[in-house]
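Q: What does the assembled structure look like for these inputs?
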Amino acid sequence: MSEMSLEHAAAHAEHHNVPSPQTISNAKLAMWLYLASEVVIFATLIAVYLIFRSNYPEEVKTVHRELGLVLVSINTFVLLTSSWAMVMGLREAQKNNSQGLVRWIGLTALLGAAFVGLQGVEYTELAHAGISIGTEFGMRFYAPTAFHGAHVIVGVLWALRVAARGRKGYFNAQNFLGVEIFGLYWHFVDVVWLFLFTIIYLI
Amino acid sequence: MADETQKTSVGQETPLEPENDPGITDFRRPMVTGMAQSSAHEVHQMDVHAAMLSDTTTVLGRTVTVPGGIYTVVFGFLAVATVLEVLLGSLPSGILLIPLLLAIATIKAGLVVAYYMHLRVDSRLFLYILLVPLVLATLATLYLLAVPPVAY
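A:
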C-alpha cells in the first residue's frame, strides 16, 4: 500500500469520523510471522512425541524414573529467569539506560548458555542410561529438545550481539526495536520450553 | 508513551514522501495498516506503556512496588506455578493430573505472551498470527491422538 493511499485513508476516516489507519512495525510483523512458522514445526515434533506417549505410556514412565525432575526443573527456572532478565533489559533501554540494558541482556545470554550446558549434562546422563537417538523413545525425545536447544544457542549469540550494540550506545528510549524483536524470539523459545517441560518431563 | 517515541524514530529513519517513490516496493515502509483504536483507547495504551516502566503495579487489587514492576510480579507468578507443576508432576499419575498440568503450562505461556511479549497492548494482528497456527496444530494433534495405532 503506498503512502498516498494511507494518507487518503486517514483523511477519509477523519472526514467520516471513523478510526484512522495505524501502521505497525514491519520488523515486528516479520518476527511474528516467523514465530508462527516455528509454532507449526514445534507442534509437529510435540505431536510425534505425544502419539508415542499415548501408545507406550509404560516406556515413557521408565524414562521418567531414570531422569528424575531435579535437573530439568533447575533448567526450567534458568530459562524462566532469562526471560525475566530479557524483559528487564528492554525496560532499561526504554529508560535510556544503556548500561542496565547490557547488564540484563548479558545475564540473559549467561542463563541461556547455562541452560544449554545443563541440557548437555542431561543428555550425557541419558546416554549412560542407554537412551540414545536410535531408540524408539530417544528419537522422539531428542528431536524436540535438541531443536529447542539449537534455538537457545542462536538466542545466546543474538543476545551477545544485542549487548554489544547496546554497549556502543545503539539503543535508547527512542530506538529499542532491535531489543524488542530479539525479546520476541527469546520469550517464544521460553514458551516452547514451558510446553516441552510439561509434556515430555511431567506427564 | 514509549510506543509513541518509537514510532517517531521509525518515521525519521524512513522518509515517506510520495514524490520520492521510485515505484518499486520499499520493504522499509510499513506495509500493513490496522484500524486504530479510539483516542480514549490510545490514551489508555500510553498509560499501559507507562505502567510497564513503573516499579509500582496493581496485582489482584493490591498496589505492589517491586524493582521491575509488573515484569517482576509476572516472574513471581511463573516461579510459583513452576514449583506447583513440579510438585504435581511428582505425584502418582491420576486422571485429572494431565489436564491440570497442561492448564498450568498454558496459563504460564499466556502470561509470558501477554506481558513479556506485550500482546496485551500490541496489535491484535500479532495475536491472530500466533493463534491461527496454534489452534490448527492443536486440532491436528488431537485428531492424530484419536486415530487408533493400527499401523504400529
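The longest strand of chain A covers residues 21-23.
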